[in-house]
Specification:
By secondary structure, the chain is mostly helical. The protein has seven helices and six strands. A hairpin with a 2-residue loop joins strand 2 (76-77) and strand 3 (80-81).
């Protein structure tokens, strides 16, 4: 039996960080400048993440790509631990609240040339196509291929919509993705060492980064890119459309 349950993992590694980030947002700004839009963005992304990820996890867990230690899971929905579903919902809040410490929309028109949109879509489809090839090759590239095939459609949509804007905001994207990814990779490495979950050597490459399977590191990189890119463009879109932007005060006129 693992030394720490999956729920214990949440209490040790995710809950404290989430609490600190909520407090940091409250102290720094008291209230997010565009609170309704910013919180709506998180809720929307979390809902999409859960809906999009569950079928993928059902497939890979069912195939035995990864599994969980004895006695670490309290309940399952289909074959997914409820703690895993909670992880999917909590991660966007952690990454978004970190991003919200400093992100600001840029004054840039929404217009992007069709050629650039097609280029972004092509890049995303290339990721997806590479993933499908690796997945159907089977064996040790199964997890890596499934991950890229799953990430590709999201990247296709995001990059087709606004990769030039994301490129202009590369510092924001890099910092927004960097810290949550490093933290979650470190927590994942500890969880694997404690036996909370394990990856099948049959379906993984065996390559590691600081002792963490490369597929897991890539998973957190991709999912945090989903969140950060999505929110950066969400704030850009809503700012340009004037959503939740206070109307200018009326100037009194002389009678």
């Amino acid at each position: 039996m693992a030394a720490l349950s999956y729920l214990g993992f949440h209490l040790v590694f995710l809950a404290p960080l989430l609490f600190v980030l909520v407090v940091a947002v409250s102290i720094r700004r008291l209230r997010l400048p565009r609170a309704r839009v910013q919180w709506a963005g998180i809720v929307l992304l979390a809902g999409v993440a859960l809906t999009y990820t569950v079928p993928w996890e059902v497939l890979l867990i069912g195939r035995g790509v990864w599994g969980y230690g004895e006695g670490v899971v309290r309940a399952r929905l289909w074959n997914i631990p409820v703690e895993e579903l909670l992880f999917i919902l909590v991660q966007p809040f952690i990454t978004a609240l970190w991003l919200y410490q400093y992100v600001e929309p840029a004054d840039r028109p929404l217009t992007i040339p069709v050629r650039d949109r097609l280029l972004g879509a092509l890049a995303g489809l290339t990721v997806c196509g590479t993933g499908l090839a690796l997945y159907f090759a089977g064996g040790t590239t199964t997890y890596l291929g499934a991950l890229l095939a799953w990430a590709g459609p999201v990247f296709t949509i995001q990059w087709a919509f606004g990769w030039p804007y994301l490129l202009e905001r590369w510092r924001t994207v890099t910092v927004g993705v960097g810290l949550p990814t490093v933290y979650l990779c470190a927590a994942d490495r500890i969880a694997i060492s404690l036996g909370i979950w394990e990856l099948s050597p049959t379906y993984t490459t065996g390559l590691t980064l600081g002792g963490l399977p490369i597929e897991e590191a890539l998973f957190f990189l991709c999912t945090n890119l989903f969140v950060v890119q999505g929110l950066v463009m969400w704030l850009w879109l809503t700012e340009r459309l004037g959503i939740d932007t206070p109307a200018p005060a009326a100037v009194p006129t002389e009678p």
